């Protein structure tokens, strides 16, 4: 059994924390909106009034927050976790720069892994997330049993490499949706019949995505798995990280623009795949 402080128990974090609780680990939890922690408290977790209080006595601290600003808010200052964390797993999607800032805020002898996850609510519930881990291999081996409750950890390099790998993976996911949306808009604009449009896409590299998204596109219903606003945030992180590295990514910037436009139109709380409908409607 490991004493774990879990900071950020929203949609994804709550499911991940519940898996650790069900596996017999001792959990203290904190969330910006306390009501979201209540199901975990009812299941046996200990609520904390502040991130710093949650960390007290914990062997491992896990953060799963929305963005780099939220990570900074829970990490720094008198109520933050930085002063008390000895071993920390940063599992949010925040980019390499935020991981570097977090490392600087921690005590010099604190252990830190950046370990963002690939997957959505169903994978979090089933414990089948892909976990991209950056940092010390010995530290990873020490916490591997804990991470294995959540999914499959893959060591991808030194600290910051996990955050970098997650951005690379997310670019492929967001880019695929952007290209699929534009292909659908083009087919519609050129007058291709819908049945033939799907048949054509079936034989392309987008075939699997087209088949997966067809029902949602035709019905106009996009069940919420991952909020579009968070996808826009991830697209911003990709563009910012590329700029910092001196890498030209015009396609990534174009995809970001589609998500930003959809969010500005009020679609931020819809599923990120609803960007398909936005692209098709904008033709």
Task: Quickly describe the structure.
The chain is α/β, with parallel strands linked by helices and 283 residues long. The chain has 13 helices and nine strands.
Write up what this structure looks like:
With 283 residues, the chain is an alpha/beta fold. It folds into two domains: 3-157, Rossmann fold (3-Layer(aba) Sandwich); 165-281, Orthogonal Bundle (N-(1-d-carboxylethyl)-l-norvaline Dehydrogenase, domain 2). The protein is built from 13 helices and nine strands. It has helices at 11-22, 38-42, 51-55, 68-75, 96-105, 121-126, 137-148, 161-189, 194-202, 207-219, 228-245, 250-267, 275-281; strands spanning 3-7, 26-30, 46-47, 60-63, 87-90, 111-114, 117-118, 129-134, 151-157. The strands form two sheets. The protein has a six-stranded parallel sheet. A three-stranded mixed sheet has the order 7-8-9. Helix 1 (11-22) links the parallel strand 1 (3-7) and strand 2 (26-30). Helix 4 runs parallel beside helix 5 (96-105).
Keywords:
single chain, about 280 residues, Rossmann fold, N-(1-d-carboxylethyl)-l-norvaline Dehydrogenase, domain 2, 6-stranded parallel beta sheet, 3-stranded mixed beta sheet
CATH fold group of the largest domain: Rossmann fold
Arithmetic mean pLDDT: 96
How much of the polypeptide forms β-strand, as a percent range? 5-15%
**Topology, number of strands:** 9
Rg from alpha-carbon coordinates = 20 Å
Q: What structural class do helix, strand and pairing data support?
A: alpha/beta
Order of helices and strands: EHEHEHEHEHEEHEHEHHHHHH
Instruction: Give the CATH superfamily of the largest domain.
Output: NAD(P)-binding Rossmann-like Domain
Oligomer: single chain
Query: For the terminal residues, how far apart are their CA atoms?
Result: 55 Å
Number of structural domains:
2
The main β sheet shows up as: 6 strands, parallel
